[in-house]
Specification:
alpha/beta; Rossmann fold; 2 domains; 5-stranded parallel β-sheet; 3-stranded parallel β-sheet; 14 helices; 10 strands; globular
Length: about 350
């Protein structure tokens, strides 16, 4: 019996399911502020934990109307209302998603959580007015990987944020943008604030500095294995999939990225045969989206062919999506170690 292929799956996702799925991905189900371990060499990380905790408390206080339990914490004083938006600014691998998910967990519902791409997909499925109606009933919208890659999508989401904020929804976001918007590899908060126009004054911007935690003191990605060994290991791993890299790339081109998460749900391990550099940027960006969904679900990866860091060419890494590609490489490397240890 042959090993199942991702390319043979036909995932579907209704608009109602899209709304219901707006929660932190499985990898972040159990994260909390006290499970975030700040790097002692990076004081901004401990400060970010404190800022996120204070923001979550403000959202909880606003949603409870400053009830007796909240007043008891402040000796009957009214808590500082602060700003309705919080923006976490920093490089990849510093724990911004951990902090964002922890903030979401600390706030009572109704609430929603999704990546920037998932949010634009939701608007595409429901329409702008219906998305505003549904999310306006929530206390918090958490947006991971806020992007400035596409001006149209950026303005769509910033208009959505403005509508939701006016309705009393608090918004927390993390950054993910183009290198020409970065200063010394960092997201330029001023550019973000300028993009959201009237929302600028409503956001507190919090820096989270540091190296990529996924690779501190850890080895590089394991070397690719031979096709035969990869095929045998895939067949011996319950719930695994095995795909030829080129065929999977072609399949992803026919599948909307909003369905990539459903595509890999229930998969225990992904095996990719004949990995090579992405032939163009469209393919590369689809691989980034797939890598994010695999990482969300902690699905380990084995490959043959070229190494995972070879997915993105030097030309790609020198271009506008450098940060996306480096994040994807970081995440795929971490996932490849998971099976290498087993």
């Amino acid at each position: 019996m042959s090993t199942p292929r991702l390319a043979d799956r036909r995932p579907e996702l209704s608009p109602d399911e899209m709304v219901g799925a707006m929660t932190p991905p499985p990898r972040f189900d159990e994260v909390r502020f006290d499970t975030y371990v700040p790097n002692p060499d990076e004081p901004s990380q401990a400060a970010a934990v404190e800022a996120c905790g204070a923001f979550a408390e403000r959202v909880a206080a606003a949603s409870s109307g400053g009830g007796s339990w909240w007043k008891s914490l402040f000796g009957g004083r009214k808590a500082d209302p602060g700003k309705p938006g919080l923006y976490l600014d920093g490089g990849f691998g510093v724990g911004k998603t951990h902090l964002l998910a922890s903030t979401w967990h600390a706030v009572p519902g109704p609430k929603s959580y999704g990546t920037f791409v998932e949010l634009t997909n939701l608007v595409g499925a429901l329409g702008f007015a219906e998305t505003v109606r549904r999310l306006s009933e929530h206390r918090l919208l958490a947006i991971d990987e806020f992007e400035l890659d596409d001006p149209g999508d950026t303005m769509l989401v910033t208009q959505l944020i403005a509508k939701l904020s006016d309705a009393g929804v608090h918004v927390a976001a993390t950054s993910n943008t183009l290198p020409d918007k970065l200063g010394e590899g960092r997201f330029a908060a001023v550019d973000f604030l300028r993009e959201i126009h009237a929302m600028a004054a409503r956001f507190d911007v919090v820096r989270v500095d540091g190296p990529d935690y996924r690779h501190r003191g850890l080895p590089d990605a394991p070397d690719p294995m031979g096709d035969g060994e990869l095929t045998e290991l895939a067949a011996a791993t319950d719930g695994a999939t095995l795909d030829d890299f080129e065929e999977l790339c072609a399949f992803l081109a026919r599948l909307h990225p909003s369905k990539y998460g459903r595509l890999v749900d229930g998969v225990s391990a992904v095996h990719l045969r004949g990995v090579q550099a992405a032939p163009d940027q469209d393919v590369a960006l689809r691989l980034v989206a797939l890598a994010d969904r695999l990482y969300d679900r902690a699905i380990p990866v084995r490959v043959s062919g070229e190494s995972l860091p070879s997915l993105f060419t030097e030309e790609m890494l020198a271009g506008g999506y450098r940060k996306k590609y480096l994040r994807a490489t970081s995440r795929l490397t971490a996932l490849s170690r998971d099976l290498a240890k087993s």
